[in-house]
Amino acid sequence: MNYRNIRELNNIILKRLSIIPRDIDLIVGVPRSGMLPANLLSLYLNRPYTDIHSFLNGHIYKAGARGQFFDIKQFKKILVVDDSVASGAALAECKENLKHLAGSFDIKYCAVYVVPGKERSVDYFFEVVTLPRYFQWNILNHTTLEKACFDIDGVLCADPLPEQNDDGEKYIDFILNAPPLFIPGSKIGTIVTSRLEKYRPQTEQWLKANNVKYNDLVMLDLPDMAARQKANNHGDHKAKAYMAKPYVLFVESDLTQAIQINRIAKKPVLCTENFEMIFDKESVLYNIKSGKYMPFLRKYALKVRDRIRK
User: Fold this and answer.
1) What angle do CA 222, 156, 286 make, to 5 degrees?
2) Considering the entire predicted model, what is its pTM?
């Protein structure tokens, strides 16, 4: 599995920015995934940008306004940007939609990531990345989420505040009214949580109310919060569910637990605390030593280093 987050997207664009000609007049992003790299390129190249549909309707984005009509004579060289090319079907459709403008504009195509063999399908690309792959900006709509496990607190919804975590009426109220965080657009394979089994009805009610689609819900079968705290087996509990089926991804909010799950299951874990993908515990140690973590993440990563080595 290959994974790229927004930090890595930004870094590869900056690293290879020189491949883009400076005579580009307008940058056009392909909704939705192409809008993020198009925006970044627009900022770094100091060029106006818009999306494909607005471009076809004669609009560009303008600071302080929703859009502005443009004169066809004002822009000649157009760069159409998408985040990636895999099969090439989406790119072919895009080219088909714009082919009637070939006589009016000099249109070039750019993708940040391409699969091997598709390098010539675009005029410019930044990195070759093989399949399977996940991107931070569209992972919640990935078609393979049925092969994934998701935690609830800190992932699907906010964590409870200390005063809400009373294992009683306040906690029940939290479960029923928890603010949603990252709600996937695709069905999840299994939701795995350290919430107690006795809170299943309220949890299922919240999941339904927030349109979270899933196949299974695995909870912790212990009598109360004191027993859960004494067991202190969150990582083991989640890793066991992860290993029970041929899942390829676990989405966890807490970095320490994410490392524990990865260490036990020996499969990738995406941590929403920093949106880093943990592939193996040794890679985490390497990233700490090499300084890959940004300062505020490095400080936290050092705290969990001893737990990794156990």
Assistant:
1) 90
2) 0.83
